Amino acid sequence: MGCGRVGSTLARSLEERNHTVSVIDSEPDAFRRLGPEFNGDKVTGFGFDQAVLEKAGIRRAEAFAAVSSGDNSNIIAARVARETFGIEQVVARIYDPGRAEVYQRLGITTVATVKWTADQVLRRLLPAGAEPDFRDPSGTIRVDHVPVPEVWIGQRTIHFQEQTNSRIAWIDRLGEGMLPTRDTIIQEGDLVHLVMREENAGHAYAVIDKGPEGDH
């Protein structure tokens, strides 16, 4: 639902990945953003109207995205898709980050546009560790990307994890992602993506800066 810049881009991206897509918008003129190559259905109406959703094929759908410009419309449509039609994969774009967190806890995946953009800028302004790449809705778990200091080069990832009390989800190495094993050796230029508890972040970064304990 919603054929603005986000909705039209999302629809084309999904179709390029060989998914069948229906797009709903209250303004017929909005569908021009899809371009002439788009093969999916275009349904004029409001995405929280059950009859409109039916016309768009909601009963055959595996996922629903509410990305119109209105928070209320997106949330109502998302709830109808989830609660009335039983769609499990439902995402709603919400401009108000406070409301987004509330609906996230209700089981509706939300994308808070303003907060997401601000977070992306913050991560580029602040020192490493000041703002995570991801924080779960409860605020308990975070994911950070960390350039490995020189003091850790040559160390096994298992010792890095044990001493920082974190887990390496993956490593960016020479432009490619890799999943480390217990015996993976940290190399110069590695960028590690760490999963850790929020309360442990300060300790983890202190250990990373200080370097390994003992002879490994």
Short description:
With 216 residues, the chain is of the alpha/beta class.
Helix/strand order, N-terminal first: HEEHEHEHEHEEHEEEH
Radius of gyration computed on alpha carbons: 22 Å
Biggest β-sheet, characterized? 5 strands, antiparallel
* Number of helical regions: 7
**How much of the residues is beta strand, in percent?**
15-25%
Strand-pairing-aware structural class: alpha/beta
Determine the fraction of residues in helical runs and give it as a percent range: 25-40%
Amino-to-carboxy terminus distance:
55 Å
Uncertain stretches: none
Which term fits the overall shape? elongated
> What spatial order of strands do you see in the largest sheet?
6-7-10-8-9
Number of strands: 10
- Tell me, rounded to a whole number, the average pLDDT: 88
